[in-house]
């Protein structure tokens, strides 16, 4: 019997979808509410109660062959005994062979000991293309049509007229042309935009139905200099951490807008704050940050040329259904001994 551990609250009907893959071969366990609260950093009234919940958490991971769910620093800390970790992941989950994440990125699982130890890790890459693609276009349209100005004026009861701009004919640059970048390009072209993208695997200039130009990653500065809107949609890896710093921000047009739905650390936050304050760029729509939740004293909150959202660009009312569909398809492959989809490459970090 294959033991599957689900680490997040999942609707009973979706548990049934997973079970239906092989009713006689899989056993499904869902973490209880107290265990999930522990993973989210909940403070228990007593250390004794916390230890009791942690013991149940360890037992669940000790039984698991497959783990399906989110992963974060809280999970590693709860399992390994604190931020420094007294136990290794192999100590607490000795039988785990495969982890199916509910995220498209695997950066939060890097250095956990699982990927490095040869455990197969898969993501839900592709799930977010539709909601994040829509979110990107919403962000671009907000700046083009002056939505932040209108909302501030409404809050003050001011009739403040201004001239919006058109998207038609503008250039949208997309840094990272995977599933999300492709969808953002498709939607931008539907608005009559010219789309440029950089792609890590590109070795020479090319084009596609969703991009007028696809450039090698080495030509990032060309994309930045030509784009009216720059979209960051690359994974967070050692290569992309801090990719957008002062030099890159100064390469952008002074009337350009940056949209970041990737991860906060792909930008150098101090340089971005300065760029927005000093007018190197016109504005930014930021859904991700170095520290989340965004600290109350962050300068981004009060900047009139910044739209802040709380890491929700990938949200959709059918997120769990899509994640389960991806997991169920991979579970069929796993039980049949076939290669899994969306496997994380340790060398690339995604």
How does the SSE layout of this entry go?
Elements: E1 2-6, H1 12-19, E2 26-30, H2 33-39, H3 47-63, E3 66-69, H4 73-80, H5 89-92, E4 98-101, E5 120-122, H6 129-144, H7 147-155, E6 171-175, H8 179-190, E7 194-199, E8 206-208, E9 211-216, H9 220-226, E10 229-232, H10 246-251, E11 257-260, H11 269-278, E12 283-286, E13 306-308, H12 319-336
Parallel strand pairs: 1-2, 1-3, 3-4, 4-5, 6-7, 6-10, 7-9, 10-11, 11-12, 12-13
Antiparallel strand pairs: 8-9
What general form does the structure show?
globular
Quickly count the helices: 12
Number of strands: 13
- Report the average pLDDT across residues: 92
Rg from alpha-carbon coordinates = 22 Å
Q: Main sheet?
A: 8 strands, mixed
Low-confidence stretches are none
- The class by helix and strand makeup works out as alpha/beta
Portion in beta strands = 15-25%
- Note the gap between the termini: 30 Å
Report on this model:
The protein is built from 12 helices and 13 strands. The chain has 350 residues and is an alpha/beta fold. The strands form 2 sheets. It has an 8-stranded mixed sheet, with helices on both faces. Strand 8 and strand 9 (211-216) form a beta hairpin. Helix 1 (12-19) packs parallel to helix 12 (319-336) and helix 6 (129-144) packs across helix 8 (179-190). It starts with a strand and ends in a 14-residue tail after the last helix.
Quick summary of this structure?
This protein is α/β, with parallel strands linked by helices. 35% of the residues lie in helices and 16% in strands.
């Amino acid at each position: 019997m294959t033991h599957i551990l689900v680490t997040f609250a999942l609707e009973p009907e979706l548990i049934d979808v997973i079970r239906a893959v092989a009713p006689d071969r899989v056993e499904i366990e869902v973490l209880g509410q107290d265990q999930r609260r522990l993973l989210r950093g909940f403070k228990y009234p007593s250390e004794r109660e916390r230890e009791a919940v942690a013991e149940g958490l360890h037992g669940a991971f000790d039984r698991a062959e497959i783990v399906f769910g989110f992963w974060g620093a809280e999970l590693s800390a709860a399992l390994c005994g604190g931020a420094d970790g007294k136990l290794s992941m192999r100590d607490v989950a000795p039988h785990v062979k495969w982890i199916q994440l509910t995220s498209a990125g695997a950066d939060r699982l890097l250095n956990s000991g699982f990927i490095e130890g040869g455990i197969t890790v898969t993501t839900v890459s592709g799930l977010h293309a539709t909601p994040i693609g829509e979110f990107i276009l919403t962000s671009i349209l907000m700046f083009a049509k002056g939505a932040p100005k209108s909302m501030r004026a409404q809050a003050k009861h001011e009739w403040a007229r201004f001239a919006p701009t058109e998207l038609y004919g503008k250039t949208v640059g997309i840094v990272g042309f995977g599933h999300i970048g492709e969808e953002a390009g498709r939607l931008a072209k539907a608005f009559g935009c010219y789309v440029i993208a950089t792609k890590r695997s590109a070795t020479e200039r090319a084009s596609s139905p969703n991009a007028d130009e696809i450039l090698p990653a080495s030509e990032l500065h060309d994309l930045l200099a030509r784009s009216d809107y720059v979209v960051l949609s690359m994974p967070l890896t050692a290569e992309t951490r801090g990719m957008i710093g002062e030099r890159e921000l100064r390469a952008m047009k002074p009337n350009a807008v940056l949209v970041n739905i990737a991860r906060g650390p792909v930008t150098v936050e101090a340089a971005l704050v300065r760029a927005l304050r000093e007018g190197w760029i016109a504005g930014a729509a930021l859904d991700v940050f170095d520290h989340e939740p965004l600290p109350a004293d962050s300068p981004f909150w009060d900047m009139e040329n910044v739209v802040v959202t709380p890491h929700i660009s990938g949200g959709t009312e059918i997120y769990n259904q899509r994640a389960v569909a991806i997991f169920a398809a991979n579970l069929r492959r796993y039980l049949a001994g076939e290669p899994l989809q969306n496997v994380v490459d340790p060398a690339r970090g995604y």
